[in-house]
Amino acid sequence: MGEGWLVYLVALVLAGLGRLVDRAALARRLASRDLALAAAFAGPLLAFGTLDPRRLVGEQAARLVGGAAIPPAWGIFVQPIAAAVALAVAAAPPAGRLERLAFAAAFVACFLGGGLPAAALAGSGHGLVLFIGAVVAAAKIAAVVWFVQRLHASATGSRARAALFFLERAAMPLAIANLLVTLAYGLLR
Predict the structure, then answer these.
(1) Gap between the Cα atoms of 42 and 40, Å rounded
(2) SS3 of 122, please?
(3) What is the arithmetic mean of pLDDT over 4-33?
């Protein structure tokens, strides 16, 4: 199961490197986008120490503050810079429906804790737990798709558009800096 994330990241990096050799400005911009997206998604994978999607979602079910329920240890709280970079990169270029849906699914798994953890419904039937988890995951994916579309459609000159422009331009340095800080933190703990 863990190899799935590795294949995804390698595909993004290879697509980005393949476009870097192209002389067209659009191809280089897309390459930078692919590499920044790969680096942004690598942040939570590195922070949670797993490539296995099930373990990644399970790690996010743990709580940040003792045993308190708020806030959850979702990747968006653990890796806020990576989440912002990923959203800005996804909202910047026009993307097809399938690409936005795939991005939203990966974003939910890496940054929003996937579906509902099974422990939350302990004592319920297995089928009910799976159904509710799937509904929660689908709702999160739909919310991310909607949010990315709203960011993409934000008016020129607005604060949201200015923030997106800055994050898109600084995506690679921010994503790499985030990875370096995450790696240093992981090595020092």
Answers:
(1) 5
(2) coil
(3) 65
CB contact at 8 A, 136 and 116: yes
Per-residue pLDDT of 87-120, as tens digits, reads 888 887 666 777 888 888 889 888 988 876 655 5
Q: Distance between CA atoms of 68 and 133, rounded to whole angstroms?
A: 21
Location of structure tokens 């579906």: 115
Instruction: Locate 7 and state its tokens.
Output: 């294949």
For the record, the structure tokens of 114 come out as 């996937």
Angle at the Cα of 173 (from 51 to 15), degrees rounded to 5? Answer: 55
SS (HEC) of 57-86: HHHHCCECCCCCCCCECCHHHHCHHHHHHH
Q: How confident is the model at residue 18 (pLDDT cuts 50, 70, 90)?
A: low
The answer to whether the CB of 85 falls within 8 A of the CB of 171 is yes
Q: How high is the pLDDT of residue 93?
A: 66
Beta bridge partners of 72: 63
Please give the C-alpha separations between residue 161 and each of 30, 76, 93, 113, in angstroms, as whole numbers: 19, 21, 12, 27
